[in-house]
Specification:
It is a single chain. By secondary structure, the chain is α/β, with parallel strands linked by helices. It contains 15 helices and eleven strands. A seven-stranded parallel sheet has the order 3-2-1-4-5-6-10, with helices on both faces. It has a two-stranded parallel sheet with strand order 7-9. A two-stranded antiparallel ribbon has the order 8-11. The N and C termini lie far apart (47 Å).
Length: 355
């Protein structure tokens, strides 16, 4: 049976990986974003605003979408506003699909804030580690919970199956993405290598010393494809992480070596990037000129504040993958290679300097 996927948020770190994986698997793929700024081979790109039902309906008309992958969000000043806006984006998308297509399955991508709480209540009363899908929701307003409820109601109304994925920090290739730690560290390391600044781990002692995990965007894409097509995975939520764990005091050495810079001694306290990278655009302009890089600003590539937030967590963050294994998804990803592969790709695309 011919399958046509709509990937909402196709220009993002998750959506772009999902789109490429679907194309490689032989799907018809329609990629939706507000501004189609990235072209992916084999993907039909359409522009629409998820807050505008009419534009969504026009974008989906006559496309016979069978599977929806929702991998986007819009950050708002408060969680109450996040619930309103991000809830509306998903609700509109599902309504437009109802009017134009007959969906078979919907994949919703959320994240570990399901267990940690939204930014304004972050880690105030987190779930215990390792995070498991069976754990109860936290007693805080959370747009992830609202989106799940919207999804469940639409599934009951329209008759499609669903799956929810909860990744950790996502590592993968995307430019200008607000939640992109891998590219941020690549820019930071390149600046340190060029200027002689110490490449010091910027986060908390807890993250430096405790166990943690990450999610490779390629692994997440394969996980999403599996959950969308394996009947055993229907109507289930899954953690989506690489399957290994590490301590940043170990991984920092791998990251430093891969970027050709010496890892500095950890001072025992956070040294946030947002405060230290104030002149990053000026330095980066010099590197662009010196190495013939693609003409981006450092602030176009790096998300200092979000990397500070992830690496500044004051608690252990480990997600359990037993449920996925039990349901039949057995893939894993070496997290060290997640970083080294990304850095190699950034060099080959002339985004960061060669070693």
């Amino acid at each position: 049976m011919e399958r046509t996927a709509l990937v909402v948020g196709v220009t993002g770190i998750v959506g772009s990986s999902i789109a490429r994986t679907l194309v490689a698997d032989g799907w018809n793929v329609v990629g939706l974003s507000r501004r189609p700024t990235v072209t992916i081979a084999g993907v039909t790109h359409v522009a629409a605003d998820a807050l505008d039902l009419a534009s969504l309906e026009a974008a989906m008309a006559d496309r016979n979408i069978t599977h929806l992958f929702f991998a986007t969000w819009s950050m708002q000043p408060t969680e109450a506003e996040n619930c309103v806006i991000n809830g509306a984006m998903l609700r509109n998308t599902l309504e437009a699909a109802k009017r134009t297509s007959r969906l078979q399955h919907v994949v919703l991508i959320t994240g570990l804030k399901h267990y940690l709480g939204p930014f304004e209540s972050y880690a105030k009363k987190p779930a215990d580690t390792p995070f498991r899908e069976s754990q109860a929701r936290l007693p805080f307003q959370n747009f992830y919970y609202d989106q799940e409820d919207i999804l469940f109601a639409a599934a009951a109304d329209q008759g499609f199956t669903w799956s929810v994925h909860r990744p950790s920090t996502v590592i993968g290739y995307a430019l200008g993405n607000v939640m992109n730690m891998g590219v941020t560290l690549a820019v930071y390391g390149s600046i340190c290598r060029a200027t002689g600044q110490p490449f010091v781990f910027p986060g908390s002692p807890e993250q430096y010393n405790s166990l943690t995990d990450v999610t490779d965007s390629r692994l997440l894409a394969r996980h999403a494809l599996w959950s969308a097509t394996d009947p055993a995975a229907a109507n289930e939520a899954f953690n989506s992480v690489n399957g290994d764990v590490f301590r940043w005091r170990q991984m920092w050495l791998t990251v430093a070596d891969a970027l050709g810079v010496e890892a500095a001694e950890y001072p025992g306290h956070p040294t946030p990037l947002e405060g230290r990278m104030g002149d990053a655009d000026e330095v980066w302009a010099q590197l662009v000129s010196r190495y013939g890089l693609v003409d981006y600003r450092a602030t176009d590539l790096a998300s200092w504040w979000h990397t500070d937030a992830d690496l500044g967590r004051q608690l252990e963050t480990v997600a359990d993958m037993t449920k996925s294994r039990a349901f039949g998804f057995l893939e894993y990803q070496d997290s060290r290679q997640s970083f080294t592969d990304l850095f190699d790709q950034l060099r080959s695309e002339k985004i960061i300097p060669t070693l």
